[in-house]
Structure formats: C-alpha cells, structure tokens
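Supplementary Note 3. Input sequence used for the single-chain structure prediction.
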Amino acid sequence: MRLLFVQPSQGDFVRQRIFQPGIEAPLNVACLAAYMEQKGVTNSILDMRALHHPEAALVKVLQEEKPHIVGISAFTAEARNA
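The predicted structure, written as discrete structure tokens, is reproduced below.
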C-alpha cells in the first residue's frame, strides 16, 4: 500500500491574516508519515505550501506515485483551499 500525505497551500486569506510569512515544516503530517513507515507502509509527503505551482505538482505526484490513499491535512482556516 502507498500513502500520500498532502499539506495544501494556504491561500491568500490565510497567508495574509493568520500566518506569518515563511514556511513551517508540516510536523503533523511528518509524524503520521513516520508512524506509517514504522508499520511498513510506503508513504510520501507533498507540502504544497512550499511550491510555486502546487496544483501541477499534485497532478505530477499522483500520476507518478499512484498512491492508494491520499490524506489531506488542514487547519480550519485552510479548509476551503484543502
């Protein structure tokens, strides 16, 4: 089984009003990925916040990795973009 964990882009509303500029590592997703790796499940993380063309990157990763399950993490303020 292959998992893909996705941290979606935040969108302008969130970037301008809630978070300070910069990119923080998605520790919540990283913890889940590490746990799944310990259980022998192949997985990867796509942090769309760190990319200039996040939608294109998502399509590419989905086509190349063909994950069985995609998990999307988002704060309440990011739900619309997720």
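Residues 2-78 form one domain. The radius of gyration is 13 Å.
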